[in-house]
Amino acid sequence: MILRAGTRKGLESARLALFIVCIVGTTLYLSATQTRGKHVVFTTSKCNDRLCTDLERTIESNTEVLFANLCPEIIEFVSVPSLCLQRNRFGVPELHSLFKYAYELYPRAVTYTYVNSDLLTDRSFYDTISKVSESLKGHEFVIIGSRVDSVWKENISSNMYDFSALFRSGTRARLDAIDYFVTTKSSIDWHRVPPFVIGRPAFDNWLVNYVAQSPNVILVDASNTIKMLHQSVKSGLDHWESMSDKENRDYNRKLARGGYHTGYIYVAKCRTQYHYFGFRLTGNCKPF
């Protein structure tokens, strides 16, 4: 294959070729080692694409270490290599390519979860996704939930923090801030989803709206049972909010065409809950 350097078509062809090579190589490796996970969790490091402080690198390391060791009998964690991702013209990874990577590697997983690279959780995560999967077996579903923000002021490594204490002292984030999606393989038709990028606003809210309106897909709010902690670099601000390039910052908003303004967590009619007799789903948990 001959690629003409300096052309947009050549660049896109090169990226596609690298993506295919990456998928094929990793799939062959996994086939050889017979690695398989029941629930797949994946993210990608933003520090691979931009300069990061030591604190930001520590935060991403915390997330990777946590999920890699979170009940490995049930969960398979993947940090998607930067090489294997499709990107927009600003070089930002496209969300659908992360899911595609996970589907190719683990075609028979029960669920596929995208998490932002700055999240922490505990056993409440795998307890919930396991029980929802059992309760909704045979149905397509997507699990979302709220998070708690905790400002990371020091380089606290993964073995030096008290998750429960930080979660209790943190601040509950807004109900339009959605940092993880637990999906079944056919719950989202990515051919109908714009090529949103990660790390920019609006894609999460658009997806919530899309799933809520999708027939035969159950949208589940797990805020009551999943403890999810966001390691914030500074209070109330994310990296994208400080961007001076408006076109880059608002890339997803333009793609969404206004279809994200009502994508709040509370549009999910099915909710998880613990009560005296254990775990249960409440509300409308049937597909329409």
What's the tally of helices? 8
Q: Decide which structural class fits the backbone.
A: alpha/beta
Helix content: 25-40%
**CATH class category:** Alpha Beta
Mean pLDDT: 87
Radius of gyration: 19 Å
Strand tally is 12
Question: Which oligomeric form is depicted?
Answer: single chain
Strand order of the largest sheet: 2-1-3-8-5-9-11-12
Query: Runs with pLDDT <50, length 5+?
Result: 1-5, 31-35
Integer tally of domains: 1
**What is the approximate shape?**
globular
End-to-end C-alpha gap: 48 Å
Major beta-sheet overview: 8 strands, mixed
CATH topology assignment = Spore Coat Polysaccharide Biosynthesis Protein SpsA, Chain A
CATH architecture classification name: Alpha-Beta Complex
Determine the strand fraction and express it as a percent band: 15-25%
> What's the order of the H and E elements?
HEHEHEEHEEHEEHEEHHEE
List the helices and strands and how they pair.
Elements: H1 8-33, E1 39-43, H2 54-68, E2 75-79, H3 95-105, E3 111-115, E4 119-121, H4 123-135, E5 140-144, E6 148-151, H5 163-169, E7 171-172, E8 180-183, H6 203-212, E9 217-221, E10 228-232, H7 246-249, H8 251-256, E11 270-275, E12 278-283
Parallel strand pairs: 1-2, 1-3, 5-9, 6-10, 9-11
Antiparallel strand pairs: 3-8, 4-10, 5-8, 6-7, 11-12
Transmembrane segments: 12-32
Keywords: Membrane, Transmembrane, Transmembrane helix
